[in-house]
Amino acid sequence: MKPELVKADDFFISGINIPTNTDNAFGSNVTNVSVENLPGLNTLGVSIARIDYAPNGTNPPHTHPRASEILYVAEGILYVGFISSNIDGNRFFTKVLHKGDVFVFPKGMIHFQFNIGKTPAVAFASLGSQNGGIITIANTLFGSNPPIMPEVLAKAFMLDKDVIQHLQKQFGA
């Protein structure tokens, strides 16, 4: 964008304080604030997201290929974790977080959050990129378009091909 066309609204967004609908299969909803909806973030290397969780809701295993993430719990109790790389022995790092707690997910590591509380939870995630990207593991593997051959996934996960085909139907492949 040409500098002379930049306006104050390019650096402003509202509504991240508003709870979102968690009535879905995962029981969570992510409200992203990235360069896509806040142009003023362009080249700044930061973004933020609000995550709402129903009781037993999850932000399923995913990764951000271009950003580390720092998660702040504003309400509720979350079970969170990430897995290191194969080279590091797939070590699992996990914590139970309460209101006011913070946890860091290193760039590219597969991680998740799960609401173990009996009430809704809210967290805010700051990412070290204006567009950290997201790869949700199950959606990516079982919902690809076109679908991955079930034989490939059956061998990789050591599951019966029928189980893989069931998962692909669940995730829309």
TrEMBL record:
Q: Which GO terms describe its cellular component?
A: apoplast
Query: What is the name of this protein?
Result: Germin-like protein
Family affiliation:
Belongs to the germin family.
InterPro entries the UniProt entry points to: Cupin_1 (IPR006045), Germin (IPR001929), Germin_Mn-BS (IPR019780), RmlC-like_jellyroll (IPR014710), RmlC_Cupin_sf (IPR011051)
Q: Binding positions for Mn(2+)?
A: H62, H64, E69, H111
Claim: Metal-binding is one of the keywords in the record: yes
On whether Hydrolase is a keyword of this UniProt record, the answer is no
- Kindly give the Pfam families that the UniProt entry links to this protein: Cupin_1 (PF00190)
Q: Where in or outside the cell?
A: Secreted, Extracellular space, Apoplast
The protein's job, in short, is: May play a role in plant defense. Probably has no oxalate oxidase activity even if the active site is conserved.
CDD domains, per the entry: cupin_OxOx (cd02241)
Q: Which residue ranges does the record assign to the Cupin type-1 domain?
A: 14-165
Q: Name one GO molecular function term.
A: manganese ion binding
Tell me where on the tree of life, at the top rank, the source sits: Eukaryota
Task: Please list the residues that bind oxalate.
Answer: N59, H64, E69
Keyword list (alphabetical) reads:
Apoplast, Disulfide bond, Glycoprotein, Manganese, Metal-binding, Secreted
Native species: Cannabis sativa
